[in-house]
Design a protein that fits this description.
Layout lengths: L1 H16 L4 H9 L5 H8 L6 E3 L22 E8 L2 E8 L10 H17 L3 E5 L10 H17 L5 E5 L2 E3 L4 H5 L2 E5 L4 E3 L3 H8 L5 H5 L1 H8 L4 E3 L2 H12 L40 H8 L6 E3 L7 E8 L2 E8 L10 H16 L4 E7 L6 H5 L2 H14 L4 E10 H6 L9 E4 L4 E3 L3 H8 L1 H6 L3 H15 L3 H6 L5 E2 L5 H11 L18
Parallel strand pairs: 3-4, 4-5, 5-7, 6-8, 7-9, 12-13, 13-14, 14-15, 14-16, 15-17
Antiparallel strand pairs: 1-2, 2-3, 10-11, 11-12
Helix pairs in contact: 4-5, 12-14, 16-18
Length: 515
């Protein structure tokens, strides 16, 4: 009797391990795609995966499933380790009914998320799903709703990461959007609420799957994808690298890493980075890489809103989040997308105890009717809200232009930034000298016999009185004007000084960020 039970158990386990069966597994491989378990194996340390609920099946006879039941029911999940740190992971199994979500599949996912929150461990979801299982009707939709609710419960408590490797449609796209980071695989992953056929029927618009919801589209246009990976292997490497910068949960500090890079290292080349001509662009990532440990900058949202650069790095071994205007694109001006991008990143860093380093060179907010009519006021305020709300150590370095509202929004002193530095090349004012003189001295210029000569003189006078970092330093809104060569030791020193920072908000349910 015992042997018969063991044989039956072994049969069920083998069935679960085969997902939708050998033919389906072969079809998955024939598309150049890995199975759910193979993907989990790529992510986790070898031999560390412990599967949960492998024998779960649906339990409703009224479903039109042609008598089919699959152990695991379309989701593979459990826990394991990444670089020795415990994580919880689930992967939709496309070999089982196209990876569609059932009621029981949703229960498996939410059970894992409950464990992750209680034990304080990150959650990684691997997407390859046809969406809600039609045969289960409202129960499948209820399952998605349960997952969304658990995404909200886990938000800001444990890091949530999505690896999107195959299709996601309908309800299955919203859970990834509620997680902290989304990695999409190009030419493989797609995400859209309604597919090309529906778009054509409703709007008469013909568009391909890739153009509508592919990785590049979401990486460059919508901003849904934080990272675009070349293939499944690159995707899992990206998830692992991301995990190396973030803590297990909101009660822990992010993991430090040893480095041979001298924290007191100076770089005399930084003095020549800012062009004398303020209209000439340069790459702010040259500054970032120069000052961080081992020149290692892990950029987030690289393809989206490139007029601002955000990402993770380390200073003296400690992870930091970097936010920097990028003069190579739109002269580093703030617009709707860049404000959203930076605000979301700042809020993640604040939720998970990652200090924020801001590098400023911006002429202001982007002008124009398109920006105004699409809500630059509403979206731009998110950046202000995010900096004001953040209680982690905040260090700001002004290297070039810092004008008007954008000066305020980019981590200025009065947004409770802890340490504010400036290079001698910084220019902090309501307007640049030329624009200010045109407004203030318009009548004098119109009456002058040599308006260009007068303008040059007036601009020099304005720059001396207003448009330079020493005026800001005299008012205490800049703590020090520093030698660019010594930027790295100054940032590392400030970060170490702030390690014991404690800051709290007044009691409230939550703020009302202008979404």
């Amino acid at each position: 009797m015992h042997s018969e039970k063991l044989d039956e158990h072994s049969r069920k386990v083998r069935s679960a391990l085969m997902g939708g069966g050998p033919d389906r597994v072969s079809a998955q491989h024939g598309k150049g795609k890995l199975t759910a378990r193979e993907r989990i194996g790529l992510l986790l340390d070898e031999g560390s995966f412990v599967e949960m609920d492998a024998l779960v099946t649906h339990h409703y006879h009224e479903f039109d499933m042609q008598g089919k039941k699959f152990h695991g029911d379309g989701v593979v999940g459990g826990y394991g380790k990444v670089a020795g740190r415990q994580v919880f992971v689930y992967a939709y199994d496309f070999t089982v009914l196209g990876g569609t979500l059932s009621q029981m599949g949703a229960k498996k996912i939410t059970k894992l998320m409950d464990h992750a929150v209680r034990t304080g461990c990150p959650v990684i979801g691997v997407m390859d799903s046809g969406g809600a299982r039609i045969q289960e009707g409202i129960l499948s939709l209820d399952g998605f709703a349960d997952i969304f609710y658990h995404n909200q419960l886990a938000s800001g408590v444990v890091p949530q990461i999505t690896a999107s490797i195959g299709p996601s449609a309908g309800g299955s796209v919203y859970s990834p959007a509620m997680t902290d980071f989304v990695v999409m695989v190009e030419k493989s992953a797609t995400m859209f609420v309604t597919g090309p056929d529906v778009v054509k029927t409703v709007l008469g618009e013909e568009i391909s799957f890739e153009d509508l919801g592919g990785a590049v589209s979401h990486g460059t246009r919508s901003g849904v994808a934080h990272f675009v990976a070349r293939n499944e292997y690159d995707c899992m490497d990206c998830v692992k690298r991301l995990l190396s910068f973030v803590p297990q949960n909101n009660a822990e500090d992010p993991p430090r890493a040893a480095s041979d890079d001298d924290p007191d290292r100076i770089d005399n080349g930084l003095a020549g980075v800012i062009p004398e001509n303020p209209l000439q662009p340069y790459d702010v990532k040259d500054i970032i890489r120069s000052v961080v440990d081992d020149r290692d900058f892990f950029e987030v949202h690289e393809l989206f809103a490139p007029n601002i650069a955000v990402g993770f790095a380390r200073l003296g071994g400690a992870p930091v989040g970097v936010v920097a205007n990028q003069p190579l694109h739109l002269a580093g001006a703030l617009d709707i997308d860049s404000s959203n991008k930076a605000a979301r990143f700042i809020r993640f860093c604040d939720a998970f105890n990652v200090p924020i380093v801001t590098i400023v060179d911006t002429p202001g907010y982007m002008p124009g009717s398109n920006q105004e009519h699409n809500g630059i006021i509403r979206h731009g305020s998110k950046l202000l809200f995010a900096y004001c709300e953040a209680t982690v150590p905040k260090i700001t370095l002004v290297v070039g232009k810092a004008y008007g509202g954008a000066y305020i929004a980019m981590g200025s002193k009065n947004l409770r930034t802890d340490v504010n530095y400036a290079w001698p090349t910084a220019r902090c004012a309501v307007l640049g000298a030329e624009a200010a003189v045109r407004i203030i001295n318009r009548k004098d210029l119109e009456a002058s016999a040599d308006p260009e000569e007068l303008k040059r003189g007036l601009m020099g006078s304005f720059a001396e009185k207003f448009d330079n970092p020493y005026v800001a330093a005299s008012r205490g809104t800049v703590d020090a004007v520093i030698d660019p060569a010594r930027t790295r030791p100054m940032l590392v020193g400030a970060l170490r000084m702030l390690e014991g920072k404690r800051d709290r908000h007044l009691p409230r349910k939550h703020g009302n960020i202008n979404l």
